[in-house]
Design a protein that fits this description.
Blueprint (H helix, E strand, L loop, with lengths): L4 E3 L4 E8 L3 E8 L6 E3 L11 H7 L43 H4 L14 E5 L4 H9 L5 E4 L1 H6 L1 H9 L3 E4 L12 H19 L1 E3 L1 E2 L8 H7 L5 E2 L4 E2 L14 H12 L5 E5 L3 H14 L6 H4 L5 E4 L3
Helix pairs in contact: 3-9, 6-7, 8-9
Bound molecules: 2-acetamido-2-deoxy-beta-D-glucopyranose.
Pfam families: Polysacc_deac_1
Keywords: Carbohydrate metabolism, Chitin degradation, Chitin-binding, Cobalt, Glycoprotein, Hydrolase, Metal-binding, Polysaccharide degradation, Signal, Sporulation
Subcellular location: Prospore
């Protein structure tokens, strides 16, 4: 997914940390080696780093893959349960009550994981491939955008908006959240929200965890942002088409989708991060037709928590 990324030199930057509501102290931080990431040839088109975000963070440019933690006064750390951090598949470290979706397919009552009408959803954009999807779509659909792609493709992000589609957050840089500390999780969420606000003037309601990586530690954080988790009950595994060892073919995906269509309900996971997965999505639209819902329509909910005026 980050094939188009290139590492730039390690940089030093200043982050102003809001200590309570009173003092502001400057803390010097060094970006890790994988920080300071930019898209080749796209930087001039980036969402400008807004003054309100400089005022709040002390920074003047968008972070790399490992965004810095900026404390937020509305987050109560004592509300976050102490489940253990783990890598993907390292599921034994936590009890079943942690309610992990990727480990045990567990969902909480406020998670959205299905839909009354079988509907597609798209993760990992916006990318140039997203535009081909926009050309084809005759119904409103849901995109879960990465913050880092949002600030690097602001015009594509706004075109998705102008076409009336719903956009939720997919974190800043596609981290597997259960492997992160609470502070790192907050950083992934806050920077994705700031990217969406700086680019689209709105604050999202819907959150799709990368790799389905969510448990009650992560929910305790995302709920404090007002976000609601969106999972799925039908997986195309379309990303396997772009992985080094493809264990899935286009035709297997189309066969699955035709089968799912018979039951009429559900939420389908797809990706607009690559041309190959978008090629598949265009054919899936032909199979399913346009009688689909956005995630907010699935649950009769709102599209965004807030829309700001410019
Ligand atoms: C969103 O952007 C507006 C400026 O358009 C700013 O005043 C506001 O503080 C931002 N809110 C968040 C949560 O990013």
């Amino acid at each position: 997914m980050f094939k188009s990324l290139v590492l730039v030199a390690q940089t030093l930057y200043l982050v102003s940390v809001l200590a309570g509501d009173t003092a502001t102290k400057l803390v010097e931080k060094t970006l890790p080696a994988n920080g300071g990431v930019a898209f080749v040839g796209e930087q001039h088109k980036q969402t400008p780093f807004p003054q309100w975000l400089t005022d709040f963070t002390g920074m003047t440019q968008w972070p790399g893959l490992d965004p810095p933690y900026v404390p937020l006064s509305f987050i109560d750390m004592s509300k976050i349960p102490n489940y253990k951090q783990h890598q993907q598949g390292g599921c034994r470290v936590n009890p079943l009550e942690a309610c992990s979706f990727d480990c045990h397919n567990c969902v909480e009552p406020d998670d959205v994981h299905t839909c009354a009408k079988l509907s597609q959803t798209f993760d990992d954009g916006p990318t140039p491939a997203t535009l081909r999807l926009l050309d084809k779509l005759k119904h409103k659909t849901t995109f879960f955008a990465l913050g880092i792609n949002t600030v690097n493709h602001p015009n594509i992000y706004r075109e998705v908006m102008e076409n009336g589609h719903l956009i939720g957050t997919h974190t800043w840089s596609h981290a597997y959240l259960p492997s992160l500390t609470n502070e790192q999780i907050i950083a992934q969420i806050e920077w994705s929200i700031w990217a969406m606000n700086a680019t689209g003037n709105h604050y999202p309601k819907w959150f799709r965890p990368p790799y389905g990586g969510i448990d009650n530690r992560i929910r305790a954080i995302t709920r404090q942002f007002g976000l609601q988790a969106v999972l799925w009950d039908h997986d195309t595994f379309d990303w396997k088409l772009v992985s080094n060892d493809p264990k899935r073919t286009e035709n297997q995906i189309y066969d699955d989708v035709r089968e799912w269509k018979k039951h009429k309900q559900g939420l389908i996971l797809e990706h607009d991060g690559a041309h190959k997965t978008v090629d598949v999505a265009l054919n899936v639209i032909d199979i399913l037709g346009n009688d689909q819902l956005t995630v907010s329509q699935c649950v009769n909910g709102i599209d965004y928590i807030k829309k700001y005026s410019e």
